[in-house]
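Honest question from a wet-lab person: if I give you the sequences of every part of a complex, can you actually get the arrangement of the whole thing, not just the pieces? Trying it with mine:
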Amino acid sequence: QSVLTQPPSVSGAPGQRVTISCTGSSSNIGAGFGVHWYQQLPGTAPKLLIYGNTNRPSGVPDRFSGSKSGTSVSLAITGLQADDEADYYCQSYDSSVTGWVFGGGTKLTVL
Amino acid sequence: EVQMVESGGGLVQPGGSLRLSCAASGFIFSSNSMSWIRQAPGKGLEWISFISNTGSPIYYSDSVKGRFTISRDNAKNSLFLQMNSLRAEDTAVYYCARIVGAYGQTNFDYWGQGTLVTVSS
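Yes, you can. This is the full assembly:
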């Protein structure tokens, strides 16, 4: 059981918008620790997609965006493309375990 | 270009030991904290260890505490993970990753390609 909770899967048609939620608690997201998102394409290492809840590293398309509300954060992907098909993970820091925690991952399927 | 290359994975029997290495390049290694993160086959990501840029402090997840030891050699731009008393549940791809960000905002901005550790008799 992961400290951060994500839906196991989401799907959408090309061109559509999807969102992936990440829910935590008062010892991680609710404590104000930043949430970061990673994209893992099949057979590859994770890649940083969003950092500090809402910021995109250089090179990440603006189709990807992050938001935060209370102890929940979300990743939104607009204009879905076939090569967006991947696993997406949220990550934060947790003061109760004194370490970094990940969500269980969400598999995005582009229909 | 920032790059990390892991090595040292392989097949080991339960109770055995293995030492992973991560060779870093393209950035000032001695200025960055580093971590090891693993991913069991078909499963999600699990952070297991952290080492600051100077070598202290060091943190471990409960799942590996007392069995794994993280270390670094800043002169050789290298990160290590000594794994002892290995168990079947340690079977995973092990990634080294660079940590960036201020306290409370730390994230893993660059990852190696990973090295597979299989614990089986």
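Two things worth pointing out. The longest strand of chain B covers residues 92-100. Chain B touches chain A at residues 35, 44-47, 50, 59-62, 95, 101, 104-114 (CB under 8 Å).
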